[in-house]
Specification:
The protein is mostly helical. It has helices at 21-32, 44-63, 65-69, 78-103, 109-117, 134-155, 161-189, 193-212, 224-229, 237-255, 280-290, 294-307, 309-327; strands spanning 265-267, 272-274. It has a two-stranded antiparallel sheet with strand order 1-2. The longest helix is centred in the middle third of the chain and has 29 residues, at 161-189. The protein is globular and about 65 Å long. The chain binds Phenylacetyl coenzyme A. Residues 3-6, 52-53, 56-57, 60-61, 64, 91, 122, 124-125, 140, 144-145, 148, 151, 212-216, 221-224, 227, 233, 237, 287 line the site of Phenylacetyl coenzyme A.
Length: 328
């Protein structure tokens, strides 16, 4: 099983009959749309589920800087370089808001990072693929940030206050990211035949991994039912994946590119696209740690953390010095 199976103490979704009066009152607040704040009473399993999801999300943001970091020194113009740097910096900011949101639930950032470095924590499968051409910067911004927006817009309305508020700003920044990605693709598609081919190649490599970002199919998603009852998730994995396909196919057509899916076709009755089967074996392998770049990503993150030790110590020494002066 590729799920980390964080032990939340629950083996099935709890019905009202299973719940204590306190849990029932908690569920009623959620059903009314009241935000849960860190100091409110909450079931332990709700807290653990949030720590799991928010920390995975935070890890994804900072590991997600790495494929793009690879292109900062090779961006084709000064303007593209400045935009890429700003985007990568935004991702660090998203990690910061999310680690802070997780910390309100009583976990330390150091403990969460320890889990990441030791390979105990997950982060999004998508960041274990290599970014091998400049067109990949377009495909990542457009498809990866595009998928992230579709997943995260509903999270702005999720039940946990700090997570929902963090998502509002994240989503605004992600829409800038998605537009800059599409702009790179548009420039390539309006360029030489070789440049257009680069764009098609990037689309071919990123399309399916982007669809995997939404997680396993609904029938395989072990966490969805409980998370939806708690309004941590508002839509199922398959629903959000379908939205991604429906939204993106017209954009692909506008670019004059081909969707790398022979089974894709418009379904008049559903008013949505039918599309081919995601390669779930590949997804499971990547999540298990066997994707093309898993080991490299963790090693890079760990080195960055170790190299920053002196700086963190300096910050603490500086803060201690100021505190001592204020106390004197
Ligand atoms: N990769 O039962 P479910 C971004 C795991 S941010 C790896 O369906 P759940 C911005 C899942 O954790 C991208 N693992 O789980 C950016 C669970 O394992 P566990 C990150 C995955 O939580 C752009 C197991 O499979 N976004 O891209 C994946 O209900 C560019 C069973 O799955 C978020 O994290 C996967 N793709 O639904 C940054 C959004 N999918 O924990 C830089 C918040 C599933 O039991 C550059 N997260 N798994 O051991 C969510 O919405 C949810 O957690 C899902 C998964 C939808 C990801």
């Amino acid at each position: 099983m590729y799920a980390q199976m964080v032990e939340t103490g629950l083996s099935k979704v709890r019905t009202l009959d299973d719940m204590s009066p306190q849990e029932r009152a908690f569920q009623a607040r959620i059903d009314e749309g009241v935000k849960i704040e860190p100091k409110d009473w909450m079931p332990e399993a709700y807290r653990k589920t949030l720590v799991r999801q928010i920390s995975q999300h935070a890890h994804s943001e900072i590991v997600g800087q790495l494929p793009e970091g690879n292109w900062v020194t090779r961006a084709p113009t000064l303007e593209r370089k400045a935009i890429l740097l700003a985007k990568i910096q935004d991702e660090a900011g998203h990690g910061l808001y999310l680690y802070s949101a997780a910390e309100t639930l009583g976990v330390s950032r150091d403990a969460l990072l320890d889990d990441l470095h030791a390979g105990r924590a997950k982060y999004s499968s998508i960041f274990n693929y290599p970014a091998i051409s400049w067109a990949d910067m377009g495909a990542i911004g457009w498809l990866v940030d595009g998928s992230a927006i579709i997943n995260q817009i509903p999270l702005c309305r999720c039940s946990f206050g700090p997570y929902s508020r963090a998502m509002v700003r994240v989503c605004k920044e992600e829409s800038f990211h998605a537009r800059q990605g599409y702009d790179i693709m548009l420039a390539l598609c309006r360029g030489t035949p070789e440049q257009k081919q680069m764009a098609q190649d990037a689309l071919n490599r990123w399309w399916w991994p982007a669809l995997m970002m939404f997680g396993p199919s609904d029938t395989e998603s072990v966490n969805s039912a409980q998370s939806m009852q708690w309004r941590i998730k508002l839509f199922s994995n398959d629903e959000l994946r379908q939205r991604m396909v429906d939204q993106t196919v017209p954009q692909i057509e506008y670019l004059g590119l081909t969707v790398p899916d022979p089974d894709l076709k418009w379904n008049e009755q559903r008013g949505r696209y039918d599309f081919g089967q995601v390669n779930w074996d590949e997804f499971h392998e990547v999540v298990r740690g066997n994707g093309p770049c898993n080991r490299e990503r963790i090693a890079t993150r760990k080195k960055a953390y170790d190299d920053g030790q002196w700086f963190r110590e300096g910050l603490v020494a500086h803060a201690d010095k100021h505190q001592a002066r204020r106390a004197a």
